[in-house]
C-alpha cells in the first residue's frame, strides 16, 4: 500500500474542453512620434563637419555671441579646437576637466588691429566659455590674426514707379493701399533677385 506524504499535492482533475474566457482584445497601437522642429536635426547633420575642426558640438559656434558677449563676438570668431592626446592612466587627474578629459586649445580668429586687445582678454574668454559649458572645456586660447568672415550683403529691394500695381476694383481704401504696397514689394524683390 502506498502511503501519502504530506508534501504531495493531489493530482489535478481532468477538465473538459470548454472555451477559455477571454477579456477585451488588446489593440496594438503604433508608437507616437511628436513633430520635431527642423533645427533639432541640424546637430546630427553637421556633426561630421564640425568634428573635422575639433568642435564636438556646434554649440560653441552657434552660441558664440551669447558665450562671449556681442562686443567680443563682433571682433572674434572661433576657428578650431585642438584636443590634447588621451593621457596615460598614470597622468595627473588634476589637469583633467569634469568630463575626464583635459581642456582643449581654442584657436580664435581676430583681425590684426584687435589682436593685442584680445590677447589680454584670453583668460577672460576661457573662463566665459568654461562657465557656459559647466566644465573645463578650454585650457588655452591662441590668437590667429586673419580677417573675419564678412556676412554676405543683403540685396535691398528698392521700389520704383514701374512696380506700382493699381487695383481700382477694391472698394476699401485701406485694403487697396495695403495690396498695392504688397504687389509693388513683390515686384521689387523679384527684380532684386535677378
Please sum up the structure shown.
By secondary structure, the chain is α+β, with helices and mostly antiparallel strands. The chain has 7 helices and 3 strands; from the N terminus they run ααααββααβα. It has 2 domains: 104 residues, no CATH class; 33 residues.
Task: Tag the structure with descriptive keywords.
194 residues, alpha+beta, 2 domains, 3-stranded mixed sheet, 7 helices, flat
Description:
The chain is an alpha+beta fold and 194 residues long. The protein folds into two domains: 42-145, no CATH class; 161-193. Helix content is 34%, strand content 11%. It has seven helices and three strands, in the order ααααββααβα. The N and C termini lie far apart (109 Å).
N/C terminus separation: 109 Å
Estimated radius of gyration: 34 Å
Mean pLDDT reading: 75
Sum up the overall morphology in one term: flat
The secondary-structure element order is HHHHEEHHEH
Total of DSSP H or I helical runs spanning 4+ residues = 7
Biggest beta sheet attributes: 3 strands, mixed
Which strand-content bin applies to the residues?
5-15%
Low-pLDDT stretches? 94-99
Oligomer: single chain
Structural class: alpha+beta
- How many domains? The number is 2
Number of strands: 3
Can you list the strand order of the major beta sheet?
1-2-3
Amino acid at each position: 500500500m502506498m502511503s501519502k506524504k504530506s508534501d504531495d499535492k493531489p493530482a489535478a482533475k481532468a477538465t473538459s474542453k470548454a472555451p477559455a474566457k477571454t477579456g477585451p482584445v488588446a489593440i496594438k497601437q503604433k508608437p507616437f512620434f511628436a513633430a520635431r522642429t527642423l533645427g533639432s536635426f541640424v546637430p546630427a547633420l553637421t556633426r561630421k563637419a564640425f568634428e573635422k575642426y575639433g568642435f564636438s558640438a556646434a554649440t560653441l559656434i552657434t552660441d558664440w555671441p551669447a558665450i562671449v558677449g556681442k562686443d567680443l563676438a563682433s571682433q572674434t570668431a572661433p576657428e578650431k579646437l585642438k584636443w590634447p592626446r588621451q593621457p596615460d592612466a598614470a597622468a595627473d587627474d588634476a589637469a583633467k576637466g569634469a568630463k575626464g578629459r583635459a581642456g582643449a586649445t581654442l584657436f580664435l580668429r581676430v583681425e590684426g588691429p584687435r589682436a593685442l586687445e584680445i590677447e589680454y582678454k584670453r583668460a577672460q574668454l576661457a573662463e566665459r566659455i568654461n562657465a557656459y559649458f559647466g566644465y573645463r572645456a578650454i585650457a588655452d586660447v591662441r590668437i590667429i590674426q586673419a580677417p573675419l568672415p564678412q556676412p554676405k550683403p543683403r540685396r535691398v529691394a528698392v521700389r520704383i514707379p514701374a512696380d506700382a500695381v493699381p487695383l481700382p476694383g477694391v472698394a476699401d481704401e485701406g485694403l487697396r493701399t495695403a495690396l498695392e504696397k504688397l504687389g509693388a514689394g513683390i515686384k521689387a524683390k523679384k527684380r532684386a533677385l535677378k
